[in-house]
Amino acid sequence: MSCREMPRITNLWSKVVDGENGAWFSKVVIESTRSYPYTLSRVAALLSICRRE
């Protein structure tokens, strides 16, 4: 895939949200020119694991 065909991140932001049992979480949003070929497959404690489609 050439550099021109690859998606580019256009915006990145986060905010703190109220979770279950009074816990607080950071919600992170990544905006891009098109979808990336990765998806979230598992969230474990403090780590999100992504896999390539």
Write a brief structural summary:
With 53 residues, the protein is mostly beta strands. It has no helices and 4 strands.
Q: What are the SSEs and their pairings?
A:
Elements: E1 9-18, E2 24-32, E3 38-44, E4 47-52
Antiparallel strand pairs: 1-2, 3-4
Structure, described:
Strand 1 and strand 2 form a beta hairpin. This protein is an all-beta fold and 53 residues long. It is 0% helix and 60% strand.
> How many domains comprise the coordinates?
1
Strand order, sheet with most strands: 1-2
Q: Based on Cα principal axes, name the global outline.
A: elongated
Overall radius of gyration: 14 Å
The helix/strand class is: mainly beta
Q: What is the strand tally?
A: 4
Q: What is the element string, with H for helices and E for strands?
A: EEEE
Taking the alpha carbons of the first and last residues, their distance comes to 15 Å
Unreliable stretches: none
The number of helices is: 0
Give the biggest sheet. 2 strands, antiparallel
Share of residues in helices: under 10%
Mean pLDDT over all positions: 76
Strand content: over 45%
